[in-house]
């Protein structure tokens, strides 16, 4: 679903975006990427709505409701259990990619069985969120087919909550991600629960840099385990030709303390800063395209099948 209103140009530019316009009116980022000026002759394009599917503000973790209570309990468990030891174990286990052999589209269909318990904005099957994000981006960025496909597949890693993929608890699959092995920044939602995490009191892990060095690059940082890192492994190890920015989006789209709060930037290198520009673009669609209005799957399927064929082998190890 695409929501169209007036004045669609992105107003917020991160500290890493040096904004300039060329003669075509496109927003040009460092590194040569062009982000089209989305104003059309009708001045229509995607703009974030004020309310989520439940009639409340997006990512509101404080409002009183039964769903909010379950979301807070989710984060309590996540913050207590996501440790360096746990992440190391999960990366070793799921890095084997020995759970299943299947195509990208087969995985999309499996996602119909998943509802994200950490998401305060939507309780719809995940495949609808994927298509809503992808179709919104497709309308506004028609020439960036890699970005359309990235939107379609960015959450496929959530299948690890299903029995055939190990049946991990939701706190080990979804929710905001954050680095482990260094101090838990206060920008993390429900930060208070980190005090019960064993790493919180470990002097090797509870400083700003922890076990890392400034500017080391996010690729050298262990993130809390979940669907982001798992899907990144699947993409990389199966030889996808998605560009670096697409793989970065998949791996860090849940890293809200970075791309929304602007924290942990001291760990980034120059490549990270370039790729973050595209993650900022993507995040708007990932968060604000969630809706109760469904996409006609069969109508759009042929287009996405052609992109899958372009960027992925027919079958992948999962």
From TrEMBL:
Subcellular location: Cytoplasm
Entry keyword Coiled coil: no
Named cofactor requirement(s): Fe cation
Main localization (coarse): cytoplasm
Record's cofactor remark: Binds 2 iron ions per subunit.
Reactions it catalyzes: myo-inositol + O2 = D-glucuronate + H2O + H(+)
EC numbers, comma separated: 1.13.99.1
Pathways involved: Polyol metabolism; myo-inositol degradation into D-glucuronate; D-glucuronate from myo-inositol: step 1/1
SUPFAM superfamilies attached to this UniProt entry: HD-domain/PDEase-like (SSF109604)
Cell cycle listed as a keyword: no
Keyword set, alphabetical order: Ascorbate biosynthesis, Cytoplasm, Iron, Metal-binding, Oxidoreductase
Pfam families: MIOX
Family per similarity comment: Belongs to the myo-inositol oxygenase family.
Name of the molecule in the record: Inositol oxygenase
Organism: Camelina sativa
Gene assigned in the entry: LOC104730781
């Amino acid at each position: 679903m695409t929501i169209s209103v007036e004045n669609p140009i992105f107003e917020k530019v991160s500290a890493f975006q040096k904004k300039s316009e060329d003669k075509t009116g496109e927003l040009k980022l460092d590194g040569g990427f062009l982000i089209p000026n989305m104003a059309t002759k009708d001045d229509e394009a995607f703009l974030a709505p004020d309310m989520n599917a439940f009639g409340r503000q997006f990512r509101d973790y404080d409002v009183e409701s039964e769903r909010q209570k379950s979301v807070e309990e989710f984060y309590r468990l996540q913050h207590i259990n996501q440790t360096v030891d746990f992440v190391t174990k999960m990366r070793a286990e799921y890095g084997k990619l020995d759970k299943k052999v299947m195509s990208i589209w087969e995985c999309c269909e499996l996602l119909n069985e998943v509802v994200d318990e950490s998401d305060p904005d939507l309780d719809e099957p995940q495949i609808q969120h994927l298509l809503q994000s992808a179709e919104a981006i497709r309308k506004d960025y028609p020439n960036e087919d890699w970005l359309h496909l990235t939107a379609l597949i960015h959450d496929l890693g959530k299948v690890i909550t299903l029995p055939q993929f190990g049946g991990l608890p939701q706190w080990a699959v979804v929710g905001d991600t954050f680095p482990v092995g260094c101090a838990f920044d206060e920008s993390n939602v429900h930060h208070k629960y980190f005090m019960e995490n064993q790493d919180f009191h470990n002097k090797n892990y509870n400083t700003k840099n922890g076990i890392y060095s400034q500017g080391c690059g996010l690729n050298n940082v262990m993130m809390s385990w979940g669907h982001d890192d798992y899907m990144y492994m699947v993409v990389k190890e199966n030889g996808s030709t998605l560009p670096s920015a697409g793989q970065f989006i998949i791996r860090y789209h849940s890293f809200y303390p970075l791309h929304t709060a602007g924290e942990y930037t001291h760990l980034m290198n120059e490549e990270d800063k370039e790729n973050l520009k595209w993650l900022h673009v993507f995040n708007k669609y990932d968060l604000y395209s969630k809706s109760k209005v469904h996409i006609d799957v069969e109508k759009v399927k042929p287009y996405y099948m052609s992109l899958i064929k372009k960027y992925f082998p027919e079958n992948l190890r999962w």
